[in-house]
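Form 12-C: Joint structure prediction
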Amino acid sequence: MTETALPASPPKPSAAARAGTFLRLFARNRMAAFGGGLLALILLVALAAPILPLQDPFAQDTTQRFLRPFSEGHWLGTDHLGRDLLSRLIWGTQLSLLVGVSATLLAALAGSTLGVVAGFLGGRIDNVIMRSVDTVMAFPYILLALAIVAALGPGLVNALIAVAVVNIPFFARNIRGVTVTLANKEFVDAARLSGMGDTRIIASEIVPNILPVIVIAMSTTVGWMILETAGLSFLGLGSQPPVPDLGSMLGEGRNALISHPHTSIIPGLMIFAIVIGVNLLGDGIRDALDPRLRSGALTRPLPATLVDRAETPAIAAKPDALLSLEDLRVEFRLGRRTLKAVNGVSLDIAPGECLGLIGESGSGKSVTALSVMGLVASPPGVIAGGALRFQGRDLLAMKPGELRRLRGDKVAYIFQDPLATLHPLYRIGEQIAEAIRVHHPVPQAEAMARAVALLKQVRIPNAKSRAGNYPHELSGGMRQRVGIAMALANEPELIIADEPTTALDVTVQAQILKLLEDLRRERGLAILFITHDFGVVAQLCDRVAVMYAGEIVESGPAQAILDAPAHPYTRRLIACVPELGGGRRTLAAIPGLPPGADDLPQGCAFAPRCDKAQAACRAGRVALTGQEPGRGVRCLFPETAEDRTETA
Amino acid sequence: MTAALKIEDLGKTFGGGRGLFDRQRPAVQAVADATLSVARGETLGVVGESGCGKSTFARMLVGLLPPTTGRIEIEGENLGAQAGRDPAAFGRVIQYVFQDPISSLNPRKTVEQIIEAPLKHLHAMPREARRKRIAEIFDAVNLRPEFLSRYPHEFSGGQAQRIGIARALAASPRILLLDEPVSALDVSVQAQVLNLLAHLKAEFDLTYLFISHDLAVVEAVSDRVAVMYFGRIVELGRAEEIFQAPRHPYTALLARSAPVVGRPLGAGEDGSGELPNPLDPPQGCAFAMRCPKATELCRTTRPDMQELTPGHATACHHPL
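Section 2 - Result
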C-alpha cells in the first residue's frame, strides 16, 4: 500500500504482486465498486438490447400516447407519439454510451498525440501546438460545440466530433506535462545513444509510460463526455428523430414536462445513473493507478508511530543516559507481509556525546532514528517491542501531545535534504521564528531577533538580510545551515542528524561538520549522527554503532573500532571505503547483498556474505557481547589481529 | 598512436541571443575552453562540485548536446558536425553510464529489450547474433541469464547499474563515459561495480572518462584527473600527484575537505566566500573570491592553463 513511502526500501513487488495491489486498492474503495456495479448493469442491459424482448422503439401508436409507467404492455409508459419508453430508453442508452465512449477515445487519441509531440519535441513546435490548444480552451465549450455542429450540420456523428474536439485540450495539456518530465529522463538519453530516432523513442519509451495517465484521464472524463453529447442532442443537434438517445429523449419530453413528467424524468434518471457510475468508477481507477496515491499520500499518518508491544519491559533507570533505546523493534506491516526494519536495537547516549550510527541503505539506521520521536509513518510502521527513554521518561507511553512538545524542543532533527524540509513559500527567518513560537510564547519580533541570532551562530553571512530570503534563494550548504539553525532554535538537549551532509559537496560538507562540532563543544549538545561514511564518523563521533539488517553488529569508541574492528562486516565495510591518498588500486568489495527485511536469516544476518561463517553462525541469533569495556560485537568468531593485517 | 578522445576549446553557452521583442536574453556559460586528450586505454577522472559543468561537459562528449564552440575528435574522426543532431554517430564509439541506475532504465521494458536496443539500432544485428552477443555481455558483467526477462524495478541498485553497463557495452564503443556510476550505490556494492569496470576495461580494450565528486574513488580508478571549477578545467595531472601535491588552490581545498580517518576536523575554509554568479561571471579567475592567495591580477585577468611540470597543468597565476 505505501510501498514507496517507506524510509527503509522494502523489496520491490513483482508484477503479479502489483496486479494484486491494484485489485486490492480498487476493491477497498466501496464507492468505486458500487459505481462499477451500477455501470456494469447498465452496460449489460444496453448491450443486450438486440436480444431482449423489446418492442420496436420506432413503432408509433397515437392512441397510446403518454401512458404512465407500469401500464399494461408498457412498463415505463409511452411518449408523445405512443412509442414504448422502455425500449427507447435501452436503445437510447446504448447509443449514448457508444457516442460518449467514442468521443472520449477520439479526444484521448488526438489530445494525447498533440501532447506527446509538443512535450517531446519542445521548442517552437511545443509553442505552436499548445497556444492553439489554449485558443480552443478560451471558447466556452458549449459555444464551440455549437459552432462545430453548425458548420458540419446536425447529426450524431457531428455531435460526437464536436464533443471530442472540445475535450482535446484537456488531454493535450495533461499528457504534455507528463511527457516533458519523461523526455528528460535518463532512459530517453540512453535510447538516443542506442541509435533510436525520435519516432521510435516516442513509440517505445514514452507512450508505454504515459498509458496509465491516459487511462486515468479517460476514466475521469467519459462521464462528462456522455453528458455533453446528451446536451447537444437535447438541443436537437445530436441524434435526429426518430432515433433515440438519452439527450434527444429528454428534449422531446421537455414539452410535456409539467403534464407528463415521466417522459423526461426517466431518461434524466438514466443519465444520472450512468454519469454517477462512471465517475465513481473513474475515481476508483485513478486512486488505484495513480502512483502518488499508491504511495499512501491519502492515508494520513497518525500523529505518532503506533506502539504494539507484547510486553512493556521494565528497564533499569540509567541516570547518566540522556536517551536510551532498549531492544527496540520496528516493523512495517503491509497486508500479510511484515518487514522487520529494526530488530532489537539497544543504545545509550550520554549528555554532550556524539554517537555515530553507521550502516548501508536498508540497514534500519534511519528508522531507528525516526522512531525515537515517533516519526515513523503509521500505518504501516509499528513499534513492535522494546522501550525508549529520554531523560528517564518513557517515550512510548507518552500521549501524542506530550511527544509533540518534545519534538523540536528538547529533541531536534536535521534531515538529509534541506530543500525538502524547508517550506518553499516562507522566508527562512519566519520559519525559524515559527519553530520558536510553537514551543515558547514569545512575541513575533523577539522570535525574529532570535532567528537572526541563530543564523549568525550557524555562520551565515549577512544574517539579517538572509533571514528575508526564501529557501530556493540559498545554496545547498546555506540551506543545511538553516536546517541546523532551526534544530538549535529551542536549545535542544539532543540533535538527531540523519545523513545531514550526504547531499552536499565535499567543501561544504567539511564546513557543516566543523560547524556541528563547534556547536557541540559550545553547548554540550548530544548528537545522534546517522551516516554511511566512516570518514565522517572518525572525525566527528565519540562512539560508533554499526548496523546491519536492523541490528547493531558492533559498537564502541570510534577510534577503537576504526583501528581494530571486531565484526567481520565492520572490517570489510571499512576496507571498502576508498581513502584519499591511496593511489590507484583495486578496492575491496563485499560480495552479495544484505538480506531483505521480510526474509531475514535465522542466524547471523551477515553469515551468507561472510567468509568466516560456520554452521554455528547460521543456527541461531548471535548475542551482542563485549570483549573489552564499552565495546560490543555480535559475532561468534570476532576478528583477530591476523585477520586485520590480512586486509591491510 | 592517435588519442582515443581529443577535444579542443569545447564550450557551451545556454540562453543568450535575442528573445521576443528584441530583448537580450541572459546567457550562462556552462562549459568554456575545455581542451584535453585522452590516450587509448587510459582512464581520465573528472572531478568537480555540483554546478561546475561536469554534466554539460559529459552530455556534449556523447553527442546529446551540441557544443557552442570547439571540436570533438574520437579516434581521429571529427564528430563536431553530428553533435547534438545524430547521437547514433556518437553511440557507436562512445557510450554513457548514468548516475541513477534505476531511472536510466525504462521501467516498462524487459532487461533484454533494453540491452538489445543498441545492437538492433546501431549495428542492425540479426536476431540470432543479438542473442549470442547479449549472452556474452551478460556473462561479462556477472549477471545471470534469467534476469533478461525481468523488469528494472526487480533489481537492486548494484545489479541495475550492471545492466546499465551491459547496455553501454552492447554498442561496442571505444570509450565509456561513466557519470558518477557508483555514487548512488552503497560502499560495499560500489567496489563490486568499480572492480567490474576495471576488469571490463582490460577485456574490451576500453578508454574511460570517469566523472565523480568523490575524490577518493576518482584517485583509485584514474590515470589522470581533470579538476573543473565554474565551467573550466583548472588543473590536469596524474592521479597520484594531483591530490598529493595540488598546484591549484581549489584542488588543494578539495583534497583538504575530503573526510579522512585519523585527520582532525578542520573546515577547508570558513564558508564566507561566495560562489561566483553564473549570470554575472567574474572577469578574472572564478576562484579568486574564495582563494586565500588571490591578488589584484587574479581578479582582473583570467589565468590560462600552463604546464608546470611535464603532464601537470594548472590555470593559476600563483600556483602552489
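Section 3 - Comments
Chain B touches chain A through 82 residues (CB under 8 Å). Residues 5-18+25-222 of chain B form a domain with the Rossmann fold fold (CATH 3.40.50.300).
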